[in-house]
Amino acid sequence: MTAPPGIWAVLPVKAFAGAKQRLAPLLSPAQRRTLAEIMLGEVLAALAAARGLAGILVVTCDPRAAEMAVRAGARVTEEGAQAGHTGAVAAAMRLLLRERGAAGVLAVPGDIPAVTAAEIEAVLAAHGPAPAFTIAPARDDLGSNAVLCAPPDAVPLRFGDNSFFPHLAAARAAGIAPRVVRGVPGIATDIDSPADLAAFLRLPQAARTRTFAFLAAEGLSG
């Protein structure tokens, strides 16, 4: 199955300065900034390599993140960049509807460094005809690590630490049977906390990432 045309990936990126505060027990501010940059690069690479996307829109006010996005072939906007994850995605959806007539939007975070193009394609392939809602949860079934809406405003989104089941409920309230994608460990494993980092290091595919190499160089892979 191929993805419907006109689906854009949306990637909100916070400022790298002060990134990943919950990893402060393990990493210095400079290390956390470097980690955030490396993770973003890996997510951008996976999105750029995935077949079936019409484009990538990065929402950020960080100059370095914007530079990385452009280099990866993504479009960049500051609209909604300081409105939190939910606000950034909502602003991106409005922009893509207004300027691109996007058929759908796939929202992903910038901290899932083990994600692969094949996993992105699996989410696209699972999606049905519009109106449709497809979601890949975080490893703990709490967060929403990939959310695909067609049309982009089909379901009201609200991201956070406990958003997966509320998103399922919101889709059903909109008259849409949500499709849940599992078996995509790279998407499921975001890195926010020390526990998340430990889970990432246990992933077999993590060893092939630059994130793993960086953590190993900092003495955190064992």
**Numbering strands along the chain, what is their spatial order in the largest sheet?**
3-2-1-4-6-5-7
The CATH topology label is Spore Coat Polysaccharide Biosynthesis Protein SpsA, Chain A
How many strand elements?
A: 7
Distance between the termini: 40 Å
Main CATH class: Alpha Beta
- What's the structural domain tally? 1
User: Whole-number radius of gyration?
Assistant: 16 Å
Structural class computed from helices and strand pairing: alpha/beta
| CATH superfamily membership | Spore Coat Polysaccharide Biosynthesis Protein SpsA, Chain A
Mean pLDDT: 95
Any idea what the shape is? globular
Largest sheet: 7 strands, mixed
**Binned strand content:** 5-15%
Per CATH, the architecture is Alpha-Beta Complex
Low-confidence stretches: none
Give me the strand/helix succession.
EHEHEHEHEEHEHHH
What share of the residues lie within helices? Answer: 25-40%
* Number of helical elements: 8
Q: How would you characterize this protein structure?
A:
The chain is of the alpha/beta class. It has one domain (7-211): Alpha-Beta Complex (Spore Coat Polysaccharide Biosynthesis Protein SpsA, Chain A). Helices cover 40% and strands 15% of the residues. It has 8 helices and 7 strands. A 7-stranded mixed sheet has the order 3-2-1-4-6-5-7, with helices on both faces. Helix 1 (29-49) runs antiparallel to helix 8. It is globular and about 50 Å long. It is an enzyme of class 2 (transferase). Its EC number is 2.7.7.106. Pathway: Cofactor biosynthesis; coenzyme F420 biosynthesis. Belongs to the CofC family.
